[in-house]
Amino acid sequence: MAIRIIQVGLGVRGVQWAKVIKHHPDTEIVAYVRPRVELAKKQVAEWGESTPCFATLEEALLSVNADAVVLVTPPEVHFEEVKLAISHGCHIICEKPLSENLEESIEMVRLADNAGLQLMAGMNFRYLSVTQMYRKMILDRTLGVPGYGHFTYIRNRNGNRSDLNKYPLTMKQPMLLEQSVHHLDLMRYCYGEDVINVTADTWRPSWSTYDDDCCVSSLLHFRSGFRVNYLGTWTSGCNRLQYEWRTDFSEGTLRQCHQFDQLYSSKMDFELSMTGTNFKYDPGIEPWTPVELPECEAFIDDTFGLINEFSDAVNERRPLVTSGKDHLKTLGLTLACVEASLTGKRIEMYDFYKRSGIPSRWID
């Protein structure tokens, strides 16, 4: 039987979620929730649906039979929504971050765990085809062992656009908590290991549309010893998106040049380092070879991947991977970057997790 879902939120991302849930064979939407309920009813009518709409999650939970709740809402309301869903015995998919407050996030995970319910964090970029291939090539050691990497995301994201959510304009650390959280999660996921310590700095250019810091630079030290430099911003001096995630391995290099695709690899030519000029440029050096990827519609196919994982976990076919517990490590790393910026110190992640109250069994 299909998982009956109440979807909370019908903004930009909510419309994408609704499209996926409605077309997934294992799920169906039994109610929508939006404070501006008349607007929700109008949206649903335009889609040719008769699905009931409610102004609050509590109304919906009392009015329909549901197995799960999908929260596509601002992070400051997640805590109360998650508690309410759990009190009604519902599994949960919650858009990232679970909360801007790590203590609240830990409590959400604890409540779901105690109730035997699945709590998934909406880290959909894990299921982009380029991410799946990046991860596979790393874990298969296609190019050897990683030595270092750099991840650059430079974007001029004007928060006043009509097709963007407005809450990041006034939230604390909008870049880290709304965008970099994805990038830090991708690195943890694709490298298949955790960060042991981090240094970071955050700041706000004077012309930014955001009230708080929207730039972050960090150095991540992973468990097996390699490092990654990360630079991310939502405020730029031009409107060209620069996305590059490059990892250098013992036998070659892997490079993603677009947020949703464009993956290239090169095999190291060890003899070439001993011949020709000292400073080498194209042509005559190792070529970048495109890595073939399955087609993938961003924000749709990757969300299907989340629903597939969630459905398997709810139906006890396999454990949840993109879980609330796993998300605590990503969120903790994100908030450790904030602490590193404020204190100017290198943050040891195991100590940070422990003093933040994350149980050892969830992080070991």
How is the topology of this model organized?
Layout: E1 3-8, H1 12-23, E2 27-33, H2 37-46, E3 53-54, H3 57-63, E4 68-71, H4 78-87, E5 91-95, H5 102-115, E6 119-122, H6 129-139, E7 146-154, H7 174-191, E8 195-203, E9 215-222, E10 227-233, E11 242-249, E12 252-256, E13 263-267, E14 289-290, H8 301-314, H9 324-343, E15 347-348, H10 349-355, H11 360-363
Parallel strand pairs: 1-2, 1-4, 2-3, 4-5, 5-6, 7-10
Antiparallel strand pairs: 7-11, 8-9, 8-15, 9-10, 11-12, 12-13, 13-14
What features would you describe in this structure?
It is a single chain. This protein has helices at 12-23, 37-46, 57-63, 78-87, 102-115, 129-139, 174-191, 301-314, 324-343, 349-355, 360-363, and strands spanning 3-8, 27-33, 53-54, 68-71, 91-95, 119-122, 146-154, 195-203, 215-222, 227-233, 242-249, 252-256, 263-267, 289-290, 347-348. Helix content is 35%, strand content 23%. With 364 residues, the chain is α/β, with parallel strands linked by helices.
Question: What can be said about this structure in brief?
Answer:
The protein is of the alpha/beta class. Helix content is 35%, strand content 23%.
Strand order of the largest sheet: 14-13-12-11-7-10-9-8-15
Low-confidence stretches: none
User: Averaging pLDDT over every residue, what do you get?
Assistant: 96
Fraction of helical residues? 25-40%
Q: What is the number of E strands?
A: 15
Please report the number of helical segments: 11
Q: Write the H/E string, N to C.
A: EHEHEHEHEHEHEHEEEEEEEHHEHH
Task: Name the overall outline.
Answer: globular
Largest sheet: 9 strands, mixed
Distance between the termini: 36 Å
Radius of gyration: 21 Å
Query: Pairing-aware structural class of the strands and helices?
Result: alpha/beta
